[in-house]
Specification:
- The complex is a heterotrimer of chains A (479), B (100) and C (474).
- In chain A, 41% of the residues lie in helices and 13% in strands.
- Chain A is α/β, with parallel strands linked by helices and 479 residues long.
- Chain A has three domains: 230 residues, Amidase signature (AS) enzymes, CATH 3.90.1300.10; 142 residues, Amidase signature (AS) enzymes; 64 residues, no CATH class.
- In chain A, helix 11 packs across helix 13.
- Chain B has a domain of 43 residues: Histone, subunit A (Orthogonal Bundle).
- Chain B is α+β, with helices and mostly antiparallel strands.
- Chain B has three helices and three strands.
- In chain C, helix 7 crosses helix 9, helix 9 packs antiparallel against helix 10 and helix 10 crosses helix 11.
- Chain C has three domains: 275 residues, no CATH class; 106 residues; 63 residues.
- With 474 residues, chain C is of the alpha+beta class.
- The chains are: A alpha/beta (479), B alpha+beta (100), C alpha+beta (474).
- Chains in contact: A-B, A-C, B-C.
- Strand 3 of chain B pairs antiparallel with strand 10 of chain C.
Chain lengths: 479, 100, 474
């Protein structure tokens, strides 16, 4: 039965649990067994609570036996990025400054997953406060890419990606500020969706850059990602930037195909990619054309301005968002004779190097005399990027590009050079700046390492994105 | 735009951000921040002057909450996760140091 | 002193009278148990997000309209600085686009003080210092209560157009009256719901220069405000006359010594790194909404004042000030609307009502009006008795009159009337008590003239004799 359970996708597994064909407890035990084998090598999780998962599963089974209707994720093991507040697990954002902190409330997305019958199996590793592209910046551990344990899984949602691809969870939640869902999805060979800004409540997400952060699903298949998206999408009165728009059916029409869709292949993003990645994207374009889409090449040079703008906006907002970690109310407290000295010690000892680097950069960019040159200018770039996208979307339904310029790199390979690491976000950042949705889908491999391609769409076009992503997934043999 | 950042800038910014840096860290951040600022200096386009500053990606406006009380947190629970407390309060070291 | 003049600008922070805090549903409560009116949002817990209170915006606009400000689209910004009473280590405030821009407050003296802006922001928690006498200076450690964190504040910034301590007090008292009249604030300085910071500088009289200014923080009564500003003006003049110069600094007022003293905190050039609050979309008041609020604006102190001076030529300014006070005004308007002579209303409000106002809940404005209207029938002293009797009485006016003993003239009330007359005629009373019976006729005549319809001659005679025997026995 165990192999059977592991072979099921989320919708089938939930259906089997709902019908009683398998019990949620059997599912959870199967996944826990998988974790006991995989986790020592991969290191995807910061915390796992087997007992709580089994008792939650048992409660679901009892509810089903008593005639209750179970939700769309009934019994599905879900991994949660450790920057989402959970009352049942510590929430650290992989930072020492929050070691052991257990929030008194659940993030809205966590409540939605649990209400849908999902089983929270554990909290996954990330770059500290989601700042990074490799999960090497975690304050606790390194997560390895299951395809090659010497390589990174990408980041910052590297733990969630690694958990899904090694089948330690069937679904995962990540967060994406500059590509943190899509890039690890690309590097591990899974599907990662960054929804339209405002589609998913940020309430309970430990903020990195508030105007860019968005929570999204990570899954083995496009359909699973769509199922998770249906569960977590929707207005939340606790988040003033949450959109009060209806949630479309995402799973039902997913097989609708791409016939007559106009797709733009973004040539200037193709140019920055390694040859194997560029070749995969071109094959993806051909596959879409083969399915009846119209594919044309388009240059959108403005998108390359996104990278520098991002490295102003994100650190600036982060410098403010991370001010509250001062040792006064929760988390780590350092020594100090005065409150001021205590705050300085707490922050200096509690934050890692990358977080400090970005706080410094953001503080500088906002400080007197530099605001106009940096922050204000970056906001103007956001307008420029958005208007460039709008122009492109007047001619194309979707845009196609690489997700990451390269496949997974070696652990330690880029950790000495922050700028080089930053440059690898060039393809994913523009959609965060404009607030539009984008998805990464596996489409090819190079030397045993997965390659993801990115589809980008206009605001609220997730249904179209998922439909095209599904067509791509079907069009790739897996070799 | 060339954007070197001075050692004094690094020290000032660290002070604003309540971070204590060793001299090695100061040198490292001076070098790295300068290079990042070079990257940031790539924000260059003639059209920027006429672009509005975009603070939000959405066109939302007047997102308001009714003035209706909701239950909050139990004091014990929130004090329970504090590094130091006394009675019903959070406790911190004194605000002012000894006069110099 | 004649050669210097003061330039004063005031920043008044007022807590808004909402049911909940500015960005969360925690009760906006004063005086509750420490750290009980808190939630993830006002504690700034990781992951929490602010959602703006509609009522706070409405009250801000109400005040803006009352100050003749321009109500404009606005945006919240983050003001970044570290302090342990501020849970996020930034304050959500308004910066370059406040909800209210411009405006003015007209003082009683006729002077008009310009308003720069009135903007919304969140309050901080409260620090309690332990050891060293509870003062920040010698404290051993500090405690924090976050109940006040996130309470809505409106910061009203005046132009530097105030030129004396007295005028500063007048400005704050007028502004306070406006805030109370609009229902935006309870105006209680002693509870900290109204706090004033003063920016003070001096310059040679008649000059237009603006010299270095000193900010005096957190003065907690009108009297202290006057003393603090007065001291600071003298101090600055003395410094300049001694050839010195003024440092730009923040000082606090020491109640005990009456001096302003520099804050000993490290002086750090303020660099608040303002940027637009990404968690909060902008506010853009709908014209219809602003019109509705404007139409519901109550008559403000200045309007109340001019209405009374119109009604009563040569009215006593002191009586008028009493009458327009927030707690008195409903009684005044009710009585005037009831048809009582305005002069009479002013007098009764200033003299009798204020003494009863502590029991105001037990005396409705309409009942006050009904009783004051009886002054056509009864003497002032009887009306005063009736007013006292009316507190907590919910029968009809005639029942009240009966209860007080003025219709059936119960013996007790007869005594009160006699007493009033004898107090007015002490010489005659002394002779009567001493045994001069003839004077009794005079006194009875006075009683009948004064209370004629309310008492019979026999009742008056009996009461007079009773009172005289009591007095003789002393």
């Amino acid at each position: 039965m165990n192999d059977g359970i592991l072979a099921l996708d989320a919708a089938s597994l939930a259906a089997a649990v709902r019908s009683g064909e398998v019990t949620a407890v059997e599912v959870v035990e199967t996944y826990l067994a998988q974790i006991s084998v995989q986790e020592p090598e991969v290191g995807a999780f910061l915390s796992i609570d087997a007992e709580a998962a089994i008792s939650a599963a048992a409660a679901l089974d009892r509810a089903r036996e008593s005639g209750e209707e179970l939700g769309p994720l009934a019994g599905v093991p879900v991994a949660l990025k450790d920057n989402l507040c959970t009352t049942g697990f510590p929430t650290t954002a992989a930072s020492r400054i929050l070691e052991g902190w257990i929030p008194p409330y659940n993030a809205t997305v966590v409540d939605r997953v649990l209400a849908a019958g999902g089983i929270a199996i554990g909290k996954t590793n990330l770059d500290e406060f989601a700042m990074g592209s490799s999960t090497e910046n975690s304050g606790y551990k390194i997560t390895r890419n299951p395809h090659d344990l010497d390589r990174v899984p990408g980041g910052s949602s590297g733990g969630s990606a690694a958990a899904v691809v090694s089948r330690m969870a069937l679904l995962a939640l990540g967060s994406d500020t500059g590509g943190s869902i899509r890039q690890p999805a690309s590097l591990t060979g899974i599907v990662g969706l960054k929804p339209t800004y405002g589609r998913v409540s940020r309430y309970g997400l430990l903020a990195f850059a508030s105007s860019l952060d968005q929570i999204g699903p990570m899954a083995a298949t496009v359909k699973d990602a769509a199922l998770m998206a249906e569960v977590i999408f929707g207005h939340d009165p606790m988040d003033a930037t949450s959109l009060a728009v209806p949630v479309p059916a995402l799973v039902d029409g997913i097989e609708g195909g791409v016939r007559s869709l106009r797709i733009g292949l973004v040539s200037n993003l193709l140019e920055v990619a390694a040859p194997a990645v560029a070749a995969a994207v071109e094959r993806a374009a051909a596959a879409l054309a083969g399915e009846g889409a119209t594919v044309e090449t388009v240059a959108i040079p403005e998108l390359s301005l996104g990278l520098p703008a991002y490295y102003v906006v994100a650190p600036a907002e982060a410098s403010s968002n991370l001010a509250r970690y001062d040792g006064v109310r929760y988390g780590f407290r350092g020594e100090g004779a005065t409150a001021e000295e205590m705050m300085v010690s707490s922050r200096s000892e509690g934050f890692g190097a990358e977080v400090k680097r970005r706080i410094m950069l953001g503080t500088y960019a906002l400080s007197a005399g530099y605001y106009d040159a940096f922050y204000l200018r970056a906001q103007r770039v956001r307008s420029l990027v958005r208007s460039a996208f709008q122009e492109a979307y007047s001619r194309f339904d979707l845009l196609l590009s690489p997700t990451s310029p390269t496949t997974a790199f070696k652990i330690g390979e880029r950790s000495d050079d922050p700028v080089e690491m930053y440059r690898s976000d060039v393809c994913t950042i523009p959609s965060n700046l404009s607030g539009d949705p984008a998805i990464s889908v596996p489409f090819g491999k190079e030397g045993g390492l997965p390659i993801g391609v990115q589809l980008m769409g206009p605001a609220l076009a997730e249904e179209r994105l998922l439909r095209a992503a599904y067509a791509l997934e079907a069009g790739w043999s897996g070799e | 735009m060339t954007s070197g950042i001075s050692k004094a800038d690094v020290v000032h910014v660290a002070r604003l951000a309540r971070l204590r840096l060793s001299s090695g860290e100061i040198a490292m951040y001076q070098e790295q921040l300068s290079r990042i600022l070079d990257l940031v200096g790539e924000m260059d386009d003639d059209r920027l002057a006429v672009m509005p500053a975009m603070a939000h990606t959405q066109d939302l406006v007047n997102v308001l909450r009714e003035d209706v009380p909701r239950p909050g947190l139990e004091r014990e629970r929130l004090l329970g996760s504090a590094p130091d407390t006394e009675g019903e309060f959070f406790r911190i070291p004194k605000i002012l140091g000894e006069p110099e | 002193m004649g050669e210097w003049e003061a330039v004063i600008g005031l920043e008044v922070h007022t807590e808004l009278r909402t049911a909940t805090k500015l960005f969360c549903g925690c009760p906006n409560a004063f005086g509750v148990e420490p750290n009980t009116s808190v939630c993830p949002v006002c504690l700034g817990l990781p992951g929490s997000l602010p959602v703006l209170n509609a009522k706070a915006v409405e009250l801000a606009i109400t005040v803006g309209l009352a100050l003749s400000s321009r109500i404009q689209p606005s945006q919240f910004h983050r003001k970044n600085y570290f302090y342990p009473d501020m849970p996020k280590d930034y304050q959500i405030s308004q910066y370059d686009v406040p909800v209210n821009a411009g405006g003015a407050v007209a003082l009683r003296s006729g002077k008009v003080v310009g308003i720069v802006r009135a903007h919304l922001e969140e309050d901080t928690g409260k620090l309690v210092h332990r050891g060293g006498g509870g003062r920040i200076g010698g404290a051993e450690y500090s405690l924090i209560d976050y109940n006040r964190s996130g309470v809505p504040l409106l910061e009203i910034v005046s132009e530097p157009e105030i030129s004396s301590a007295e005028e500063a007090k007048e400005y704050v008292s007028e502004l306070r009256a406006i805030l109370v009249a609009t229902g935006a604030s309870d105006g209680r300085m002693e509870e900290g719901s109204l706090r004033v910071d003063a920016n003070v500088s001096v310059r040679p009289s008649g000059s237009a220069e603006l010299r270095t200014r000193v900010e005096i923080k957190n003065v907690n009564s009108l009297r202290s405000l006057g003393r603090a500003i007065g001291y600071e003006i003298e101090r600055q003049i003395a410094v300049y006359e001694g050839g010195g110069s003024i440092l730009q600094q923040t000082r606090h007022f020491d109640e005990a010594s009456g001096e302003t003293l520099p804050l000993r905190a490290k002086e750090e050039a303020n660099d608040y790194r303002y940027f637009p609050e990404p968690d909060l979309p902008p506010i853009s008041p709908l014209p219809a909404e602003v019109e509705r609020i404007a139409s519901e604006l109550p008559l403000l102190p200045a309007g109340r004042r001019s209405r009374l001076f119109e009604l009563v030529e040569g009215a006593s300014p002191d009586q008028v000030e009493v009458a327009i006070a927030e707690e008195v005004w409903p009684y005044v308007t009710a009585s005037i609307d009831f048809g009582v002579a305005p002069e009479l209303v002013l007098a009764r409000a200033a003299n009798e009502l204020v003494a009863l106002i502590g029991d105001a809940g037990l005396l409705t404005p309409l009942r006050f009006a009904e009783v004051v209207a009886l002054e056509e029938r009864f003497s002032p002293s009887q009306v005063k008795l009736l007013l006292k009797g009316a507190v907590g009485f919910d029968g009809t006016v005639e029942e009240l009159v009966a209860r007080v003993g003025l219709s059936s003239s119960g013996a007790e009330d007869a005594r009160a009337m006699i007493k009033e007359v004898v107090e007015a005629n002490p010489e005659e009373w002394g002779r009567f008590v001493a045994g001069d019976a003839k004077v009794g006729g005079f006194l009875l005549g006075q009683v009948m003239r004064k209370f004629g319809r309310a008492i019979s001659g026999a009742q008056a005679r009996a009461a007079l004799d009773e009172l005289a025997s009591g007095a003789a026995g002393e």
